[in-house]
Amino acid sequence: MILNSLFTHQRTGNHPATSASRTDFQRDFDRIIFSAAFRRLQNKTQVFPLPGSVFVHNRLTHSLEVSSVGRSLGSAVGDFIFNNYKNDLDENAQNFYQHNLHNVIAAACLCHDVGNPAFGHSGEDAIASYFEKNEKDLKGKFNEKEWADLVNFEGNANAIRVLTHQQTGKDEGGTQLTYTTLASIAKYPCEAIAKKKGIIHRKKFGFFQNEKETFLNIAKSVHLHQESEEPTIFKRHPFVWLVEAADDICYNIIDMEDAHRLGIVSTSDCENLFLELIKSENGNTKRVEDKLAILTNANERISYLRAKVINALINKSIQIYQERFLDILHGTLDKALLDIYKIDNPSLQEIENFSIDKIYNHKNVIEIENAGYNVMYELLNHFIPPILTEKSQRKSYDKMALKLLPKQFLYEDASDYQKVLGVIDFVSGMTDNFATDLYRKIKGIDIGMTM
Fold it and tell me: What is the pTM of this model?
């Protein structure tokens, strides 16, 4: 039975499972919490510029909330699998679905954004477009698959690298998570040359060539269904759908709440959109309206409605997952859970359309995306030409630039591809503030010693 082989205690770095008060999957959660990559999310833009006079979500608070929602989804689905397939499950699997699936989903949700660079999606765009714009000078240094990685740079693929790659002078296996948790964040389990719009598991790509062997080990250990060997394409792991749903639920709803706190969205617009979704799911909203009659603080009213909406979407996601469970197991489902929901209920689509129009295209959001794009692009331009110059040919300014690269990101005796990935590791791992400060210093905008 496939349900018995969807999980493993094996982790990167060939570290064996241990007997302790915590399960291996709880240890995954804790390792992520204590990792530097996770801490840096506190100063990476989610949507709105950081910092501001009003506290809004950053990548870290977003990830914590996604993890909370993911735990609820994992718990409900674990119960569903145990109750409906108990006779097909071996003893180990019964224990896993009853007591550990929710830990896996919570851990995967916690680290789903660790590969995202500073400044949101504009940071990703800056890295990819750097190589596109310099194709004439750079393309010949890489093979076809390596070049595809660079011109299609993707936060999801970078997350696998951040969590598994052994940096210079550091321990093997990166964060040393279980293959189960790593498989659960692989929304696009294919290599870059296989990406194809319109196909859910190939919309983007899930691993760099440098981590291909690691990903193949992950896929083998949790029995991912392989669609193609060349190019390498797998179907999604069944747990991925829950991580994706948790993320979709949070950003669709919480971005609205942030926009309201910032005065970008009016209280009436936000209330009406949230109430419409609650009404479409629950029918009778008298209890909700009675509660609102008591609450006079606008932010408190929106927070209450946000909680009700998230609860409704969690319940709907669980229902759809259960209804389409066999399609998910067989790798034939072709739409995200919330996209299926939008077909039957336009309320969520209305919230998304409103967000695109009023929030994601707001002047402040566009300004930070433009600024972030330029900062990230110029940082790459400062480091990549020197790292690709032969040691004997480097000028003094090349050497000075590379002195700013921490040693763990330097791979001097490696291929050009690996050298460039080292630079990308450094730049993509930066917080918004660190990237901005370094940019200002190397451009001569800020001169003087700072600590």
Answer: 0.94
